[in-house]
Design brief:
This protein has about 270 residues and is an alpha/beta fold. The chain has eight helices and ten strands. The chain has a five-stranded mixed beta sheet. A five-stranded mixed beta sheet has the order 8-7-6-9-10. The termini are close together.
């Protein structure tokens, strides 16, 4: 059987991701910062992934691009919505998945998929930063002055959960400043931030209807505090991919669709 190489690229608001498949099997995944030029970031992460996989980019036979930056990706053979790609990628990782919760930097999505990984329905929050990674990032860096990757670990040390009532990022920052001034611990405040996000995303999920098994994808899936708060909010366990970075699920779905497209094109 001859080798064929395809790729999926997911250009998000904060990171650009690429997944390379060889004969339908995962070869390599790569994550880089999007920066100020989404199209260039997508091109660069793709080329970097191909090089690191040990192949020349001339071997690449088909590329599908997804994410908010897909509209400017001139190197794409096809562009597909991230909703479709996250559903497909999650199903590949765990075929019993029925609900996908993707919390990215710019938006959050809850997606229902069928037994084949096709999207049945979805809801999305893309009008406001609340319930997204950007909400957490701004609070962590601008007000709490803690590394974003430490939020989950810190929230585990909370003795109570502060109430963050504002869903606006700016007003929430003001609330956090007031809580700090009142002597609340950072741990309790972070637990409150996680509960706030879980409440926002939980409302979306309940509107759609949550069916187990539930998978969480996107960068925020790495935050154990948000995962725990969401499990509590939804009353069900949530799995996070461990064989692949959860940020790569959209790019993986795009690569799997690229594989389908290549097979349809070549008749193999």
């Amino acid at each position: 059987m001859s080798e064929h190489i395809v790729a999926g690229v997911d250009i998000g608001s904060t990171t650009a991701k690429a997944v390379v498949l060889k004969n339908g099997q995962l070869l390599l995944g790569k994550i880089e910062s999007t920066g100020s030029n989404p199209a260039r970031a997508g091109q660069e992460v793709l080329e970097s992934a191909i090089t690191d996989s040990g192949y020349d980019k001339s071997r690449l036979e088909y590329t599908v691009v997804t994410g908010y930056g897909r509209v400017s990706a001139s190197f794409a053979d096809k562009t597909v919505t991230e909703i479709t790609c996250h559903g497909r990628g999650a199903h590949f990782v765990s075929p019993d998945i029925k609900t996908v919760i993707d919390i990215g930097g710019q938006d959050s999505k809850v997606i229902s998929v069928d037994a084949s990984g096709r999207v049945v329905d979805f809801v999305i929050n893309d009008k406001c930063a609340s319930g997204t990674g950007r909400f957490l990032e701004s609070a962590a860096q601008l007000v709490l002055h803690v590394p974003l990757e430490d939020l989950g670990k810190l929230s585990a040390g909370a003795t109570s959960v502060c109430k963050i009532s504002s869903m606006c990022t700016v007003f929430a920052q003001t609330e956090i400043i007031s809580l700090l001034a009142a002597g609340e611990s950072k741990e309790n405040i972070i637990a409150g931030l996680h509960a706030s996000i879980a409440g926002r995303v939980g409302t979306m999920a309940n509107r759609l209807g949550v069916k187990p098994v539930v998978m969480m994808t996107g960068g925020v899936a790495k935050n154990t505090g948000v995962k725990y708060a969401l499990e509590k909010e939804l009353g069900t366990s949530i799995i996070v991919p461990d064989d692949i970075d959860p940020q790569l699920i959209g790019a993986l779905g795009a690569a799997l669709i690229a594989e389908d497209m290549l097979k349809a094109k070549t008749g193999t």
